[in-house]
Amino acid sequence: MIHEINSVLVRVRVRKLLVVLILVFAISSTVGCIQGGTRELVSEEEAREIVYDYVVNMYQYREYNGTNLVPGLALKLGCEDCYGFVYTFDVQPSDKLPGVVTGFKVDIEVESGTVNKTWITEIRRNVTSNILEIGEFCGWSTNGSCTIGSDCIKGGCSGQVCQSRLEEPIITTCEWIDCYSASTYGLECMCADGQCRWIKQGS
User: Fold this and answer.
1) How is the chain split into domains, by residue range?
2) What are the Cα distances from residue 62, in Å, to 4, 58, 66?
């Protein structure tokens, strides 16, 4: 009789211990999931610093000696730490850019501390006659390095940029201006003297 009672008590204690262990495991798993799923939100000021670093390291800012970087509008977007920023900057005169381009406007979206989308617009002064060496063509070249013609490709949404395929892709806004049409001016994106440039067809 005593032996049976002891057996029952042992079984009860084992069951209680199992229940406790299951509860402990469930609670620890839940806490772990909560801790693993939380993250620190990125503030607007932190997002702005991320955007500033992004802009000053952009191809257009580095290669064309960007100056006068001006922050513009800041917007709070759909998610908790999603922001939109606008920056503009001037560029120095360069044989890599047509004379009408005086700077760039950059619209950037940041989501959770990461640059998500970027739109780049050329800031231009009015096109007048004799501004450009090649008629009134208003595309431009990066003068990227090349060894053969196939190293040179058209970049930009409207194909207005002649660049090397070895360079970072040039991203521009999608807009069309008649003076972007290289074929109208008899131009091709070609390798000349080790640089990708717009060259007269047949030259």
Assistant:
1) 38-125, 127-203
2) 86, 6, 6
